[in-house]
Specification:
The protein is α+β, with helices and mostly antiparallel strands and 605 residues long. The chain folds into 3 domains: 142 residues, Creatine Amidinohydrolase, Chain A, domain 1 (3-Layer(aba) Sandwich), CATH 3.40.350; 142 residues, Creatinase/prolidase N-terminal domain (Creatine Amidinohydrolase, Chain A, domain 1, 3-Layer(aba) Sandwich), CATH 3.40.350.10; 299 residues, Alpha-Beta Complex (Creatine Amidinohydrolase). 34% of the residues lie in helices and 20% in strands. β18 and β19 form a beta hairpin. α4 packs parallel to α5 and α16 runs antiparallel to α17. The longest helix is centred in the middle third of the chain and has 28 residues. The radius of gyration is 25 Å and the shape is globular. The termini are far apart. 52% of the residues are buried. Pfam families: Creatinase_N (PF01321), Creatinase_N_2 (PF16189), Peptidase_M24 (PF00557), Peptidase_M24_C (PF16188). This is Xaa-Pro aminopeptidase. Keywords: Aminopeptidase, Hydrolase, Metal-binding, Protease.
Length: 605
């Protein structure tokens, strides 16, 4: 019998824990690769609680339970998770370790799945529990899997070759880079656990995770330039074997732990941010010397080569035309009052599919009308879907996966009325323009070599802070090349709160988003997002190296929400230059009414 309510699932989990002699269990959104987005088989938190966000966790004790989310999901978690079953806890104001230490009884045994948690979390949480006389215990198998009767199986879709014409560098060259990195540090091997790291290193892609073109697998990279790929045998095609060649040994996924154990006496690099505790346990238990270092593929992957940069520009131009067609369609159809969040998202996907080159979306489209736009990571479904009302603000954050690039763009638009009388309020225009000013200030930033994203973050918030408002998410994340739409190590975000990646210096070739926002709970939300590429800047009389941003995303920004009087001359010049470039890139791809709409949307301020 299937358990169709979250209350029944929670009850079943508690019975399973009791049978295992456990007093509690923790459930992250994660998989064996510490992925941000995980396959259906690993959606344990959603199955147990109903929470559909991409970041969060839960802790279950015998008499109480809690779900932990950050500021992006404050509203969403309350809509999706039953408050009778789970307390809402806000991160980083609290942490799961603190909550467990405060609520677990003395002597409690709290279970965790060592294949779903990183070593830093295990160390921190274990120490917090130990201080309270409780214990963190690695389970044998996952208790949720024992009760989730219709759990999907991991994908067995074939892995695909990512050709050098898109990658810009052969897998052999990349493995040589990693080999040099290992040799320079006196190491024998490196564990590559992150799926996008495996994909980048071997120039392979897959369809095992929705929205991210990766194949479920692990790699052991060796100091002689060889590598071992651990992957389900059903996923291996003759093309993949030929592509990888003799220097990459293909092994079944079940061989991963035995091969880790075979590294006894060797010095092995493992990334504590990207490899699960079970990897450390296997190596240390076998007598290998584990050296904690950032995965050597991370920074190399983040700095795009010239082929990847050119591919990204091509993908952005193609995607921008689809966005323009959508915005034109929206301007005609939405004022009639017959569209909703789902119909708009479907239409936008259809315009992307008409390119003939779309592989997938790069994440689930955030199609947010009215108050839903105040949830930065709102996810529309049949239950939450609402009409897009004339005389309101509508926000759409979306992206596409193409073989030559990954896109991510947000536009916030005013939905007028058929009679043309519905106008945005003074507050709408003020907040939209302040977000725009922050977006422009970041787009125009010039900074010396060595500058980290955290040092630029306040530029995007300055105009909002002057009005006593802010937003509770980062300003910019890295973006992959036909890979993860969220890619490290670069990031533009506040340095406080221990956010990973904000200390990474920005280097030429890195791609980031530029996406300040404003959110008024229960009313409306605004975000303007383009992707930018770090590039060298020449300044007369400069002392040392300086960098700036090339804006990659070409799509009009809604002028009806702009208060021109709030813009400086430099900001108006940026707007006009940006829209002139948008017209140059997109006009050859449009025709008819859409082209005329674009002409008006790109006219100078």
């Amino acid at each position: 019998m299937l358990m169709n309510t979250h209350e029944a699932r929670l009850d079943a989990l508690r019975k399973e824990l009791k049978a295992r002699g456990l007093d509690g269990f923790v459930i992250p959104i994660s998989d064996e690769h510490m992925s941000e987005y995980v396959g259906a088989y690993a959606q344990r938190l959603a199955w147990l609680t109903g929470f559909g966000g991409s970041a969060g966790s839960a802790a279950v004790l015998a008499d109480r339970a809690a779900v932990f989310v950050d500021g992006r999901y404050t509203l969403q978690v309350r809509e999706q998770v039953d408050a009778r079953l789970f307390e809402y806890q806000s991160v980083p104001a609290t942490s799961m370790a603190e909550w467990l230490a405060a609520n677990a009884p003395a002597g409690a045994r709290i279970g965790y799945d060592a294949w779903l948690h990183g070593k830093p979390w295990v160390d921190q949480t274990g120490a917090a529990l130990k201080a309270k006389g409780a214990e963190l215990v690695a389970t044998k198998g996952n208790p949720i899997d024992a009760i989730w009767q219709d759990r999907p199986a991991p994908s067995l879709a074939p892995a695909m070759v990512h050709p050098t014409e898109h990658a810009g560098q052969s897998s052999e060259a990349k493995r040589s880079q990693v080999a040099e990195w290992l040799t320079a540090r006196g190491l024998d091997a490196a564990v590559v656990s992150a799926l996008d790291g495996v994909a980048w290193l071997l120039n392979i892609r897959g369809s095992d995770v929705d929205r991210t073109p990766v194949a479920l697998s692990f790699v052991l990279a060796h100091a002689d330039g060889t590598a071992e790929l651990f992957i389900a045998e059903e996923k291996v095609t003759p093309e993949l074997r030929a592509h990888l060649g003799n220097a990459v040994t293909i092994r079944p996924r079940e061989a991963f732990v035995p091969q880790l154990q075979a590294l006894a006496g060797k010095k092995v690099a493992v990334d504590p941010e990207r490899s699960v505790q079970a990897v450390f346990a296997a190596l240390e238990g076998a007598g290998a010397q584990v050296v904690e270092l950032t995965d050597p593929t991370v920074l190399a992957k983040a700095v795009k080569n010239e082929v990847e940069q050119a591919g990204q520009r091509a993908a952005q131009a193609r995607d921008g035309a689809a966005i323009a067609r959508f915005l034109h369609w929206l301007s005609v159809e939405a004022p009639k009052g017959r569209q909703d969040e789902l119909s708009a998202a479907a239409k936008l996907q259809a315009f992307r599919e008409e390119t003939g080159l779309l592989k997938d979306l790069s994440f689930d489209t955030i199609s947010a009308a009215g108050a839903h736009a105040a949830s930065p990571h709102y996810k529309v479904d049949e239950a939450s879907n609402i009409p897009i009302e004339p005389g309101s603000v509508y926000l759409v954050d979306s992206g596409g996966q193409y073989a030559d690039g990954t896109t991510d763009i947000t536009r916030t638009v005013w939905i007028g009325s058929e009679d043309g009388l519905a106008e945005p309020t003074t507050e709408h225009k003020d907040r939209f323009t302040r977000v725009l000013k922050g977006h422009i200030m970041l787009a125009l930033a010039v900074f010396p070599k060595g500058t980290a994203g955290s040092q630029l973050d306040s530029l995007a918030r300055y105009a909002l802070w002057q009005a006593g408002v802010d937003y509770a998410h980062g300003t910019g994340h890295g973006v992959g090349s036909f890979l993860s739409v969220h890619e490290g190590p670069q990031r533009i975000a506040k340095a406080a709160g221990g956010q990973a990646g904000t200390g990474q210096e920005l280097l030429p070739g890195m791609i980031l988003s530029n996406e300040p926002g404003y959110y008024k709970a229960g009313d409306f939300g605004i975000r303007t997002e383009n992707l930018v590429l770090v590039e060298p800047r020449e300044i007369a009389g400069q002392e040392g190296e300086y960098f700036g941003f090339e804006t990659l995303t070409p799509a009009p920004i809604d002028r009806s929400l702009v208060d021109d009087s709030m813009l400086t001359r430099d900001e108006v010049e940026w707007w006009n230059a940006y829209h002139a470039k948008v017209w140059q890139i997109l006009s050859p791809q449009l025709h008819g009414d859409a082209l005329e709409w674009l002409r008006g949307a790109c006219a100078p301020l």
